[in-house]
TrEMBL record:
<dbReference type="Pfam" id="PF13307">
    <property type="entry name" value="Helicase_C_2"/>
</dbReference>
<feature type="domain" description="ATP-dependent helicase C-terminal">
    <location>
        <begin position="3"/>
        <end position="68"/>
    </location>
</feature>
<dbReference type="InterPro" id="IPR006555">
    <property type="entry name" value="ATP-dep_Helicase_C"/>
</dbReference>
<dbReference type="InterPro" id="IPR027417">
    <property type="entry name" value="P-loop_NTPase"/>
</dbReference>
<protein>
    <recommendedName>
        <fullName>ATP-dependent helicase C-terminal domain-containing protein</fullName>
    </recommendedName>
</protein>
Amino acid sequence: MASARQKAVSAHGGNGFLTVAGTHAALLLAQGAGRLLRSSHDRGVIAVLDPRLATARYGGFLRASLPPFWTTHDPQVVRGALTRLNAAAG
């Protein structure tokens, strides 16, 4: 169900979902990435398992809220990155 703020934005011709819920989601996503990677020397993997980040119209808006990362859809590539991170930490 849409919030009152979303309905108000939509009533004035805007995109209520993107303006309210999408902006909030982008903020949370950016904060989560920021908690993992605080400096240029930090390393980690940010896994977004929700396919809507790649398929939904608002996916680009959410991706734009993140720092520049390399991306993959290949689980083997992710496992390799995690293995390298684990070896470097040990």
